[in-house]
Write a structure and sequence with these properties.
361 residues; Membrane-bound Lytic Murein Transglycosylase D, Chain A; D-Maltodextrin-Binding Protein, domain 2; 3 domains; ten-stranded mixed beta sheet; two-stranded antiparallel sheet; 12 strands
Length: 361
């Protein structure tokens, strides 16, 4: 793992060419500054990179962020794809359209107050170096977006309160990291996921994650080929986590029994004790939790049914500075990606996580 990360960073730093145009049904060579999201936008007209990731997982590995400059990937055919286009800032446009009308009487933006939480390694946590990978990405984006802009980052462990009360009441301006549901298909979402779409604006994608389905080794469920194999099962997904990955494939009650504890560890303890059948979790977070619990040899990911999502910063639409905050963050994020600084932060953070896991084993 450490070797892979080091090689990836060297390759990224060495690349200098701008990304070439991408087309479905072709082979594409990774260029400096590429992400799977932007490759998908150019090839298919949207940022859903699931098809690309699943077709190239053997080449890319389990982390869709660690693509290497010079690496060749296959862009699968997609008969229903929209015409290829230059990577549009889709989420930024949505945010601008959905934001409330300008309020001339609103106070000037002095300090941006961010809120995040603990128990989400390697992304956020007061006990993690720099507060976690995502926290450091946000700090750096703020610096690159406008080094004169004051901001603060606080940790509130009740994740649900971020969306239910803290941002709507403007106790804080922004929260991270949260996945963006499929807001273009609002009718398929759970009420809580739909609420994210209707009441919040999103930054561009800071990080691309893989949600896996985990089961006890030898149960037969660790090699399920279709989502139908999970019908009738008890599926664990911590509270405040998006359910879009389940609802989009028909895994909703009463077809399944949904179990929603407060932590990732609770899901894995449920698997170990037999009170749940499946845990639906982000693979890096899962890896850290399994190492802590000593269950890496007993609980494994189903390799056939992984899902990909994006992690972002969220701002409530009632915030009069919503567009201003997101413009600043997105501007800083773009500079980080183009300079290679984003990859430097991510690779160093993942390497540190790997070293910690090795100490636990």
């Amino acid at each position: 793992m450490q070797t892979l990360l080091a090689v990836s960073f060297i390759a990224l730093s060495a690349g200098t060419n701008l990304a070439a145009a991408q087309e479905a049904c072709s082979t594409y060579t990774i260029q400096r500054g590429d992400t799977l999201t932007n490759i998908s936008k150019r090839a298919y007209g949207n940022g859903d990179f699931s098809k690309i990731f699943l077709a190239n997982r053997a080449t890319i590995g389990n982390n869709p962020n660690l693509i290497e400059v010079g690496q060749q990937i296959e862009l699968p055919c997609n008969e229903t794809a929209a015409p290829a286009q230059e990577a549009p800032a889709t989420e930024t446009v949505v945010a601008a359209e959905a934001a409330p009308a300008a309020q001339p009487t609103a106070a000037a933006l002095t300090e941006i107050a961010f809120v995040t939480g603990n128990d989400y390694p390697p992304f956020t946590g007061e006990d993690l170096p720099d507060g976690g990978i995502f926290t450091k990405l946000v700090r750096t984006a703020m610096l690159r977006g406008d080094k004169k802009q004051d901001y603060s980052i606080d940790f509130v462990n009740d994740w649900s309160s971020h969306l239910d009360s803290l941002l709507p009441r403007q106790a804080f301006d922004a929260t991270f990291p949260w996945s963006r549901p499929d807001c273009e298909n609002l009718e398929t979402l759970s009420p809580k996921d739909a609420y994210r779409c209707t009441d919040f604006n999103f930054s561009e994608s800071f990080y691309e994650i893989v949600d896996g389905f985990f089961a006890v080794k030898g149960s037969g469920l660790e090699n399920a080929q279709t989502y139908e194999d999970y019908v009738g099962k008890r599926i664990c997904r911590p509270e405040s986590y998006s359910l879009s990955g389940l609802t989009s494939v028909g895994l909703v009650e009463p077809a399944i029994t949904l179990v929603r504890p407060t932590s990732v560890a609770d899901c894995f303890e449920g698997l170990a004790t037999g009170t749940v059948d499946i845990a639906h979790l982000e693979v890096q977070v899962a890896s850290d939790a399994l190492a802590d619990l000593g269950l890496k040899n007993d609980i494994v990911e189903d390799p056939h049914l992984a899902q990909v999502k994006t992690l972002r910063v969220m701002v409530h639409k009632s915030n009069p500075h919503s567009a201003e905050i997101l413009d600043l963050i997105n501007r800083g994020l773009t500079e980080m990606r183009e300079s290679g600084e984003w990859f430097d932060i991510v690779s160093a953070g993942l390497m540190a996580q790997t070293e910690e896991e090795m100490k636990k084993n």
